[in-house]
Design brief:
- The protein is an alpha+beta fold and 182 residues long.
- Helices cover 21% and strands 29% of the residues.
- The strands form 3 sheets. The protein has a 5-stranded antiparallel sheet with strand order 7-3-5-6-8. It has a 3-stranded antiparallel sheet with strand order 2-1-4, with no helix packed on it.
- The relative contact order is 0.16.
């Protein structure tokens, strides 16, 4: 069986990303095959594409996050057709990632979700909200704090604002955005 994938063979600009037909990865013990329904594009993938991730060996399918459905699995805790998210864990770095129609993931890196979000909506969540949630926890925010969010119009900035306001509806929070240079 074949799939479409975006493969990079050497570091460089976006022109290094090549769409090609590849074999769908074969299931192996301890892993799950996921049919990709969506993924985000992250700054770390741009760094990797540009050659700033020396541990990454090319050729590689980039992509550190995805949402999708289980196609096949070796885990008794997962079922075919189950909706999942996955982030990081060396996806797109030590092994091929989510810029493809299918990805093979370690079972412990597959997180089932029960949600009414569309695939498009769910694809905005994994890395963005995980980063924002981690930042929120590290800051140990209290209802009486005043918060300034730098880059408030970025994906992580917006996620952070939403999470803080959901937990602390009366907190004072302001954000900066990039201003057009004149």
């Amino acid at each position: 069986m074949k799939m479409k994938a975006v493969v990079i063979y050497e570091a460089g600009g976006p022109e290094q990303l090549k769409v090609e037909t590849r074999e769908i990865p074969k299931l192996k013990e301890g892993w799950t095959l996921v049919k990709i329904k969506g993924f985000g594009i992250n700054r770390s993938e741009i760094f990797t594409r540009e050659g700033h991730s020396p541990s990454v060996k090319f050729p590689r399918i980039l992509g550190i996050e995805c949402v999708g459905e289980i196609e096949e699995t070796t885990s008794s805790n997962l079922k075919k057709g189950q909706k999942i998210v996955s982030i990081m864990g060396e996806m797109g770095r030590a092994f091929d990632g989510s810029y493809a129609e299918y990805v093979l993931l370690p079972n412990e890196q597959v997180y089932p979700v029960n949600t009414s979000l569309t695939w498009e909506e769910l694809a905005t969540v994994p890395e963005t909200y995980y980063t924002a949630f981690g930042s929120m926890g590290n800051l140990q925010i209290k209802e009486t704090d005043n918060i300034l969010v730098r880059a408030g119009s970025s994906g992580v900035g917006i996620a952070f604002l939403k999470l803080v306001k959901a937990k602390f509806p009366n907190i004072r929070i302001v954000a900066s955005i990039r201003r057009k240079k004149e």
